[in-house]
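User: I'm new to structure prediction. If I give you an amino acid sequence, what do you actually give back? Let's try with this one:
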Amino acid sequence: MSFKVIVWGTGLVGKAVLRELLTHPLYEVVGVIVSSADKNGQDIGALLGLPPTGIIASSDSQQVLTIDADAVAYFGPSAIYADINMKNITAALVSGKNVVDTSMGVFENPSLAPQELIGQLEVACAVHGKHFFSAGIDPGFGNDLFPMTLLGVCAQVNSVRTIEFIDAGTYPDQESLIQLGLKSTEDQQSILSMEGIMTSIWGGPLYMIAEAVGVEIESTVEHYDRWFSPEPVVYSLGEVAAGECAAHQIQLQGIIDGKPKIIIDHIHRLYPDAAPDWQRPTMDHVHANRIEIDGTPSVIQETVFEDPVTKDGNAGTCLATGMRAINAIPSLCESKQAILSTKDLPLISGRGVIH
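Assistant: Good question. You get back a string of structure tokens that encode the predicted 3D arrangement of the chain. For your 355 residues, that looks like this:
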């Protein structure tokens, strides 16, 4: 059995996924929705630097959504554009398609998502009895699937910490990282220094881990630290001036029995030598996902996603993010639940990936 898929969005994630789906035995691309006029009407082979495929990209989402398909894989802009994303996701569901999404991290843990947004999805799913799953790496499998799986081999745990190390200088969505605080100056307030913001973004996986192991979070503690560049530095996708933030650490702690027991952490660097005294991954200079469990047994897991040709960690991570969503489509189509999280899905093993 194969699954017909409409791909919505051809940014870095969408393009990376499309390249793989064109030769995948389990999925058939039956439509591609784009947002820019210059991509409209192009064969997706041209968009991907490949020979013609016969699949034409279209900016007419209403028309593409009339095509018979099992699912829409939605690779829209970041959650900064929540209104646009919600409009597009609900339109796909109402058209009679299951939807997998990588854009709205707020749905990583649906039980904590704003009720207004969940209500919109529930109504849209109910029109044709379809299903919705939002995936990502952070919030996503980097801090829900990975730690929850490893906690399953432990007898006792004092603390669990997930760390996302990002090579921010090559990260394609520079806008979102700058809005979080990179390139800010010491006298500028970062959005992440505002009380409650970290909990609203990363509380989903924090509380999901707690629920999975049967404990309650008493409170959350938010820590935000910035490292300011002592000199101007040109990096891959821009330039940071002297005195601007070239690295930041974003840490959300879940307090249990008065102590931080579940910790969601991030260290992002605009250039490799930034914040030289801060922790680094062991498998790569700046880019990895790491899990540290202090317990019996103690566990350290570090994962690096790389593009097989360029060795670019961000490209590899974007593809992994997209394929996490794609590989969930068969289970989503078989589900009886409308809105799913990682805890609701069976093991997603990547059906058809060896071909």
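You can read the tokens as a compact description of the fold. Here is one thing that stands out. The mean pLDDT is 96.
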